[in-house]
Amino acid sequence: MVFFYRRLPSPVHAARAGVGALWAAALSVATLVLFHPLVLLALLAGVLCAGAGAGVGRLLVRSMRTGAIVWLPIVVVNMLVYHEGVTVFIRLGDLGPFGQGNLTVEALVYGAVIALKVMLLMLITTLASLTVDPDELLRIVRRLSFRSALTASLAMRMIPVLAADAERLAEAQRTRPDGPPGGARGRVALLRAVVGGSLDRAMDVAATLEIRGFATARRAPRVSRPWSRHDIAFLVSAVAVLTLAVCGRLAGAASFNAYPELRAPVSASTVVLCAALVAAVVLPFTDRRGIDG
Amino acid sequence: MTAPLLCFEGVTYRYPGAQTPALSEVSIEIQPGEFCLLAGLSGHGKSTLLRAACGLVPHFHGGHFAGRVTLAGLDTREHGPARLGALAGVLFQDPETQLVMSSVRAELALALENRGHTAAAVARGVEEVALALGIDSLLDRTTHELSGGEKQRVALGAALAGRPRLVLLDEPTSQLDPVAGDELIGLLRRLNQEWEITIVLAEHRLERCLSSVDRVIAMQDGRIGCDSDPQTFLEWATKHSPALQTPAAKLFSLAGLHPAPAGVRQARATLRAHGLLPDVDSPPIDRPKANTKPRSRRRAKPTAALECSGVWHELRKGPAILRGVTLRVQPGESIALMGRNGAGKSTLLRHMAGLLQPTRGRISCAGRVALLLQNPGDYFVHELVAEEAPAQALAAVGLAAMAQRHPRDLSGGERQRLALAIVTGSGEAPAVLALDEPTRGMDREAKSELARELRRRSEQGQAVIVATHDPEFAAACAERAVLMADGCVIADGTAAELLAGGWYFATETARILSGAAGALLPEQGAALLDIRAGASTAIDGGQRSSAVTPGVAR
């Protein structure tokens, strides 16, 4: 599944791309440094609320479902591979070269925490790709490395184009009276046609770029733009999330140990950290002024 | 006399690996402020000439280049497309490959940023070009969600953003409906007249733009066949390249009238002067009104080749693309499905072929529905023509002799026929043959060939449904026309009823003759003029000179 940016009337869409990207980066850092399941669940709730506030909630849920093929195996594999922990809930006995096959609650929970972190990172990436204008972001990068940024921009633009091409080709093959070419040879032929079509496309796009002056391209000009209320709100939110994550980690408000025995104390500071994180993530979405266009 | 803006001096060019040159000894001069139309059949060098003008030939394509091309004094051999791009904006046929950024604003800004303009100049350039082309409401939209017409406008905006002195356009209207196509030509005329932008436009449907241009350059086998004003070009085309004649010119040629008209207005003035057109048009009394109700209510025959009953296609959390379409198609009937981009034509064809399922309503069919989609190249997955379709099907479309060639080496018309062979197959003939915009980018000769093939299939009892934007093609291949708008059938009648009475969805002949007697094609129009001339000759007692009485002249 591929998600594309589309300008929607929401506070995060109205914020400048640099701030939007920074905000998403702050959420990612918080996900990486915090381990307490309750805090991670609070972050998950915050991200889902943010998705709803940005008008992309349904897409985030879809992304979460699709991501199950990644995060679900993490839980299972961790449970099967790690035999640390003292609370055995299934005894499989001696599995020969694989050693002891006892499954522990600690391995299961630790796997679930890692899966939760992976899922959160996927959701944050999806949220960023849906809400941060890639062209604006690349304009910032182009000041540093023009050609790399433009190549990235082109690659992003080609994804929907090639997806549409592939869809058209598949549709055309479905209209054959004997159906699409089957077997390995048929699939190779189909793949060759898709690749051939992509190369044709790439040639046309390259010709367009030539005419638009790619060969003589200069550094993109600096664009100065007044800071909007949403730019400021998301910048403050990013700083707040980062501060809370780092302080929570250092202060031990989100301490979590899985082995040898589960230890995830829920203190008042943990609850405060959870509430503060959700508030920091969600509050910028409550101001809906000046978000259209 | 001012220095030419674009100058070709004895240019001969051969693509890498090609045996014959795409351009041969081409010498032309284009003055600033001219609006030139580049005419010619497919493969005769129009696109190559445009690519040579902006430096893509030879810098991008390679090959063997001889002669000299200068653009505003810059030799294209010494200056590449990037440098020349500041002087010449280019718009190719497929807007999809000309949009390289994600948002419209970034797309319009790209060329300006590449050329090192300041942020203020970029912002101003983007705003101005968006306002000039009426795309300011699209600025914050993403490019992949635009319609075909919108994409074409944005691509034109990107070509114009740097305020080039010359704009080169390669069949920009081929994917647009008649309304959007006329709007684009009108826009180009405005750019030319108000800002003196020089325009070179390659186009197959000459009738759409001939009345707007100052000059026509006709390409024949890579050479300049004719370089003159529209009037002289039409005289030349009548004698040397009838496939380039506009319907109006053909009508006049068949009726023995002179001079060949460049547009409807001129044609009507000439006819009026010859007494062949009533001074004030009255609604033709012999033409029944098109029925806006589905035909099935009139003809409830049980032998329908295909029947759509109240078909709806509603997107989840989106609009309804089809709204209760009811349509009955008899065996052997040929139908032209017309309407603007987004009217629901392609969706309806996909439903007929079973690629989509109606959200409400029902489609029943007496047999298989073969659907030929817009791009024939999408069907080709093998190395040889023989591997793509059975020998019997290839023979049926006249491609048996090309069985050992690569599908992508075929010409546009041959590709279309191969795709037709693929979808029809060799087994049981499909009950319905549906075609979605089959004439996109085709020249008039290839269109006539396809129309003949469709008529042949229709005569054999196959129902043929063609979604098309081209009224001339619709009139040539269909006996019934269905007009769609906003997912509904808004008119359904004979082609003569429907294509004779409109402004946009009408043939040029019908527009010239105000739809009289349902004459759609030049041959029918000429026959009508013959009758009128005969009548007026009888009234005048043979007083009129034969030079102005077409029936007598022929």
Descriptive account of the structure:
The complex is a heterodimer of chains A (293) and B (554). With 293 residues, chain A is mostly helical. Chain A folds into two domains: 11-136 and 226-285, no CATH class; 145-216, no CATH class. Helix content of chain A is 66%, strand content 2%. A two-stranded antiparallel ribbon of chain A has the order 1-2. In chain A, α3 (37-53) runs parallel beside α11 (268-282). The longest helix of chain A has 29 residues, at 146-174. Chain A is flat. Chain A starts with 10 loop residues before the first helix and ends in an 11-residue tail after the last helix. With 554 residues, chain B is an alpha/beta fold. Chain B has three domains: 6-238, Rossmann fold; 246-287 and 512-554, no CATH class; 295-511, P-loop containing nucleotide triphosphate hydrolases (Rossmann fold, 3-Layer(aba) Sandwich). Chain B contains 20 helices and 19 strands. A six-stranded mixed sheet of chain B has the order 6-7-8-3-9-10, sandwiched between helices. A six-stranded mixed sheet of chain B has the order 15-16-17-13-18-19, sandwiched between helices. In chain B, β16, α15 (444-459) and β17 form a beta-alpha-beta unit. The radius of gyration of chain B is 25 Å and the shape is globular. The two termini of chain B are 44 Å apart. Chains A and B meet through α7, α8 and α9 of A and α3, β6, α4, α5 and β15 of B.
